[in-house]
Amino acid sequence: MRLTTKGRYAVTAMLDLALHVAEGPVTLGDIARRQEISLSYLEQLFARLRRRGLVASVRGPGGGYRLGRGLADLQIAEIIHAVDEFYEATACEGRGGCQQEGEVCITHALWDDLSQQIHSFLSAITLAELVERSEVRRVSDRQHERDARLRTGGDIAVTVLA
Fold first, then answer.
1. Residue 66, strand partner residues
2. What DSSP designation does 72 have?
3. Which domains does the chain have, with CATH numbers?
4. Residue 43's pLDDT is what?
């Protein structure tokens, strides 16, 4: 069992959006640049997030995306599920036909319990809680500084020859 980049990137992008919610609509280009995620991949993820009502698009100049609900109402598990990602530890993907005769394997209950624990863990965490974490804020501040340097051309020396 492994959470793929689809789920990881969806959570990362939603957290970025949450961190910049006070600035108004956030463009996918800004998220892509800060988080180093492909813009086309973000477009696919945000189409799914929008269909589930987790984000809303704002058209026109100054447009972008905003959260579909309040930070405290957005669970991490919900974000992962919105992009069709699941965390299932059983080999049979929870269906129970682990062995040849369609019977469950000897460790099915163990792996099913693990899947339930993962779901409970991720359901208990909201975007609001992640935004409040000091390590998340530190990384966001670093990304913001890097982004500002890139936008202004900082740290780039240019020599003009006459």
1. 56
2. G
3. 5-86+126-152 (1.10.10.10)
4. 96
